[in-house]
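In the lab's daily routine, each protein ends up as an entry in a very long ledger. A line of letters takes care of the sequence, but it says nothing directly about the fold. The fold becomes a row of whole numbers, each drawn from a learned catalogue of backbone shapes. The protein below has been through that process, and both of its lines are reproduced in full:
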Amino acid sequence: MDRAEERIREAIENKAVSFNGKKKEVETLSFPVALWMVAFGNDASLKKRYALGEANRAFALLKEENEQKLISIAESFFWKIKSATKLVENTQVTLTGFTMDFVSYLKNTTIFHESRWKLVNRAMQRGEVYVTKSIVARLLAEQAKTYIERKLEGKVTFVLPKSIANKVEQLKELHLSLKGRAHEEEAIRETIIDAFPPCISRLYNTVLAKQHLSHLERFTLASFLLKTGMSVEDVVECFRSTSDFNEKMTRYQVAHIAGEGGSRTSYSPPDCDTLRTHRICPGGDELCENAWRPTTYYRRKLMTLKTKIPSQ
């Protein structure tokens, strides 16, 4: 029960459910319990949020699976798929991946709107589309998301014990409060470097100094800059000076964070507790007090700066 509640909370707060491989039985049994709790809450927005959180968890796990396991999972959804290799045109480079029949591919890519997903932009031979391991994992994660959403569609015909029902209400309140915060963040539409919180200033200056950032640090900086009004193009240019810059990959990742592809979900920076846990927070100032996310600090600092501007 505790793990089921935690799964829902993680989906609400982080848009991704974690995985504890040391307690596989708990992981397995907590999933249907979490479904019951979310279904009982009867909140359409919470249902979508939970399905997204589980899908993001699935994607992270699927990327680590071997080819045969991915094929087995895909076949359970009635995909026609098999391992394959592909020779890159005009080179001696051979890529390993999969082929799936174009009908299965089209059925599972209708939600994607980026040009790279269009069938005309994919390598296809004899009705089979070549796809990478990452793409298969992504499509299977979306399949999992759809599966969970369908599971949550049914009418609730059961009653939960009062203690559990109270927990569901608390989770609904948490979801509602974070939705309100997210709505407030959408109002930020200007990028003022002087208003950056200490953590973002450090990351931004590190990039300008052409020094390395970890994956989480890059995600934090990119998501923050996008939330403060920068365009995808501007954020890509920000990372151009880094030593391991890959324009195609960077543009894809930034566009994904901005919500321009996939589930069309735009991501917010990690909360302050997460940044402290991963030692990304260099230590705060007085405005950091009670700030739960870098954008909260940014909004406060903007208001402070504006009050200091003399009237004309």
Remarks:
- Confidence is low (pLDDT under 50) at residues 183-187.
- The CA atoms of residues 195 and 301 lie 5 Å apart.
- Residues 2-62+155-176 form one domain.
- Strands lie at 81-87, 94-101, 124-125, 128-131.
